[in-house]
Amino acid sequence: MTGESKYVYKDKKNPFLMSGCKVADGYGTMLVTAVGLNTEWGLVMATISEDNGEETPLQVRLNGVATFIGKVGLAVAVLVFLILIIRFFTGHTEDKYGKPMFKAGKTSVGDAFNGIVKIFAIAVTIVVVAVPEGLPLAVTLTLAYSMRKMMADKALVRRLSACETMGSATTICSDKTGTLTLNQMTVVKAFIAGESREPPDTTEGLPPVIQALLVEGISQNTTGSVCKSKGSGEMEVTGSPTEKAILSWALKLGMNFDDERSKSSVLHVFTFNSEKKRGGVALKRSDSEVHIHWKGAAEIILDLCKTWIDSSGSVQEMTPTKVDENKKIIEGMAAATLRCIAFAYRTCDLHNVPVDEEQRQSWQIPEDNLTLLAIVGIKDPCRPNVREAVHICQKAGVKVRMVTGDNIYTAKAIATECGILQPGEDTEQYAIIEGRDFRSYSEDERLKFVDKICVMGRSSPTDKLYLVQALRKRGHVVAVTGDGTNDAPALHEADIGLSMGIQGTEVAKESSDIIILDDNFASVVKFGGVVQFMQTFRNSFSFNSL
Question: pTM for the complete prediction?
Answer without folding.
Answer: 0.64
